[in-house]
TrEMBL record:
Designated name of the protein: DUF1541 domain-containing protein
Keyword Repeat included in the entry's annotation: no
PROSITE patterns, per the entry: PROKAR_LIPOPROTEIN
Keywords from the named record: Signal
Length: 189
């Protein structure tokens, strides 16, 4: 399937080049857009459902905006079918959430700006939060090839993260124990 998508992407790129861009800027924008689309396609390997296990050392939030059992609407679009889904809160935890970029350990295409891993999902994590540009070793398996990858921190945010159950808006598939959405990616119904 991945080879088909890559072939389809290359066909589209070739087609764009054959049509001829009006100037070099248009060509660069088209290539950049195709690369962005290809990177987003890599998120199709994201493990949407999880076991419900939380990393060692992760502490429950004492006063979260959304309590376990509450429902909320997801405003994030990490994956197709996630935005505007009705979520049930399974867990709320205080931590630092990171967006990361990394080359998968299974040889897949580089993943840019993956949201989110948390501080407790970093191998041998320091006591202090990491900063943009720091390199870390990931010990989370949200996507194939993520566990053990060396990642660059794209952003860091101290926040409440939530584990949620929801139904995909595109397919109706049920997702259980999805890790993670941040507090600003949820809104009250």
């Amino acid at each position: 399937m991945k080879m088909f998508i890559s072939a389809l992407t290359m066909t589209a790129i070739t087609g764009l080049a054959a049509c001829g861009a009006s100037d070099d800027m248009d060509s660069h924008e088209n290539m950049g857009e195709m690369k962005k689309m290809d990177n987003e396609m890599d998120h199709s390997e994201m493990e949407m459902s999880g076991s419900g296990e939380v990393p060692t050392g992760l502490e429950a939030s004492e006063n979260p905006t959304f309590e376990v059992g509450d429902t909320a609407i997801i405003t994030a679009d990490h994956m197709e079918g996630m935005k505007d889904a009705k979520a049930t809160i399974v867990g709320a935890f205080e931590t630092v959430a990171y967006s990361i970029s990394y080359d998968p350990t299974n040889g897949g295409q580089r993943v840019e700006n993956h949201k989110w891993i948390i501080h407790e999902e970093i191998q041998d994590a320091t006591d202090e939060p990491y900063k943009t540009g720091d390199e870390v070793k990931v010990k989370a398996d949200h996507m194939k090839g993520m566990d053990g990858a060396i990642a660059t921190i794209d952003s860091a945010e101290e926040t409440t993260v939530y584990m949620v159950d929801f139904e995909m808006t595109t397919t109706g598939d049920k997702v259980k124990n999805h890790k993670w959405v941040t507090e600003d990616e949820l809104t009250k119904q």
